[in-house]
Amino acid sequence: MLLYTHTASLLSDFFADEYDLEINADQLQFAPTRKEFEGDYTLVVFPLVRFMKKSPEECGEILGQYLMERSDFIDGYNVVKGFLNLSMSVHFWKESLKMTADPAKMTASTENKGTLVVEYSSPNTNKPLHLGHIRNILIGWSMYRILERYGYELVKTQIVNDRGVAICKSMLAWEKFANGETPENSGIKGDHLVGKYYVKFDEELREEYLQWLDTPEADEAFKSNAKKDESKEAFFKRWKNDYFNKVSQLGSEVRQMLRDWESGKEEVVHLWKTMNTWVYDGFDETYEKLGVDFDKTYYESDTYKLGKNLVNEGLKKGVFFTEEDGSVWADLTDEGMDKKLLLRGDGTSVYMTQDLGTARVRYDDFKMDRMVYVVGNEQDYHFKVLFSILKLLEEPYADGLYHLSYGMVDLPGGRMKSREGTVVDADDLIAEVVQIAATNVQERDGMTSLSLKDQEESVRRIGMAALKYQLLKVNPKKRMVFNPEESVDLQGHTGPYIQNAFVRIKSILRKLDESDDFDSEGSIDDYFYLKDQERELLKLLLSYREVIERAASDCDPAHLANFAYQLARTYHRFYHEHHIIRAESDAAKAFRVKLSGVVASALEDSMFLLGIEMPERM
């Protein structure tokens, strides 16, 4: 920031001259002055007291006087205990306006921090993308843009779970009940069609289970497996998975289908490829609606056998051990975890083995310095174990791994359940928020000058801003409730509210462009009496780089989302309290127009980093 750089240089000279000390800029702690005190920025004096060997108040007075005498950026100060409150000059604010004129350029890192791989989305091919996936995807996409601005070379990846029991459930249900239904002859989007048969399988399994409950075999299972004093109702609710694995005819057919797939049985592999193609086509449509893409997609059907070499390397190094049955384990008890199975006794892989191998393959592909996994918090323990094992193996990238854990998304009516068909489909949700946006826009006048095509595009951008912002404004670690109606509120803490500030500024600038008697640069130097909201806007603009750095270091897009909201809210208040086109002087008009343009650029750029597009009118 301009003030930090300038003041650090002066104070460095002070300590060098007076105390023969070299002061690092990191030792200077600045923050905006609290509203109850006079001043714009506050220097925390306490860390400097040990060098000056005076009381905090005396140190503050000495430093304040020194800065006043040597800086035309500071025109006043006061000391409150160990805090030096600095009042900034008009010259400082004008220089700040120039410095923030190009927010994207101002915040771009000049340092190459290395290669970073970010994994997000990573869906299953047995169902369409849903609301939870949308949160995952939007967090991953925004972090890609934020981290790229922060100085990393980014690689965007996903790993698709395209094999296993769940996928075979959809395949078996389609084979038994679909009567040849396809996306082409049904008009149903491919991933929706496959998801339909995933739900169908669960319905048929439930019906099979209910019929089985009335058989002597069920009574025998209860007698043999129930816990002491456990009711039949409680037992059978608990035993449903055991029924699938031990009794169910449908369960037996699913397991056989999985064995047939793993052995390469031609007709099963053909069906698997066909249905997965339907799903991938559907996913691509949804990704396009969300405005996201990937540089590399990995498939579990390719990677599920990976990792065995890593496990064998670990055995040779003595970091893993074998049991009598030949299974291979990692002992993580010294790190507060348990023992983790890596290879079964028959030599087959487990899920952890696959993730170990995928990590190595990604390193072979990209030689990344860091890797960020965007995965829900139900996998917290899994990633803790994965990272610990990779460190035991001394993988060169192991210290750069990070699990960006996020909480689940609920609806006002409660949780979603895939197998019961109560999940909020991503495509349906996108259509719903865009439709709500369209209804809201019909009540406004700003769209009437646009062509029908441009109106539709503006409505799409408003609806997508509502959806994306609502999911990104909350710290990823927090569980959240998504309410479509609230997300489009033009007066709330929403994406459309921020877009409205941008559109308002664009409208002002268009009117001025049509005027022949306005020179936007001519009289800024003659403006000497800045209003509180003007200084507040400039403070926010000056903080933009720090906000991006904090969002990058915390892996939290909410920092950026809330910056955009604060900037928009401050501008709305400024707009309502001060004239711009009809300002009290040409100098005030020129300054406010320039400031408004910079605010619009910062709003557009911050929303771009969140993956949100701005409309020109709304």
Give an account of the 3D structure.
The structure is a single chain. With 618 residues, the protein is of the alpha/beta class. Among the domains are: 87 residues, Gyrase A, domain 2 (2-Layer Sandwich); 133 residues, no CATH class; 179 residues, Isoleucyl-tRNA Synthetase, Domain 1, CATH 1.10.730.10. Helices cover 56% and strands 11% of the residues. The protein is built from 26 helices and 14 strands. The strands form four sheets. The protein has a five-stranded parallel sheet with strand order 7-6-5-11-12, sandwiched between helices. The protein has a four-stranded antiparallel sheet with strand order 1-2-4-3. Strand 5, helix 6 and strand 6 form a beta-alpha-beta unit. Helix 23 runs parallel beside helix 26.
What attributes characterize this protein structure?
single chain, 618 residues, alpha/beta, Gyrase A, domain 2, Isoleucyl-tRNA Synthetase, Domain 1, five-stranded parallel sheet, four-stranded antiparallel sheet, 26 helices, 14 strands, 11% strand
Helices and strands in order, then pairings?
Blueprint: H1 2-19, E1 29-32, E2 41-44, H2 46-52, H3 56-70, E3 74-80, E4 83-88, H4 90-99, H5 103-107, E5 114-119, H6 131-150, E6 152-160, H7 165-177, H8 183-186, H9 190-212, H10 216-225, H11 232-238, H12 240-246, H13 249-263, H14 266-290, E7 296-299, H15 300-303, H16 308-317, E8 320-322, E9 328-331, E10 339-343, H17 351-366, E11 370-376, H18 380-392, E12 401-406, E13 409-410, H19 426-441, H20 452-472, E14 480-481, H21 484-487, H22 495-513, H23 532-542, H24 544-554, H25 558-577, H26 586-609
Parallel strand pairs: 5-6, 5-11, 6-7, 11-12, 13-14
Antiparallel strand pairs: 1-2, 2-4, 3-4, 8-9, 9-10
Helix pairs in contact: 1-3, 6-24, 7-9, 7-13, 9-14, 12-13, 16-17, 19-20, 22-25, 22-26, 23-25, 23-26, 24-25, 25-26
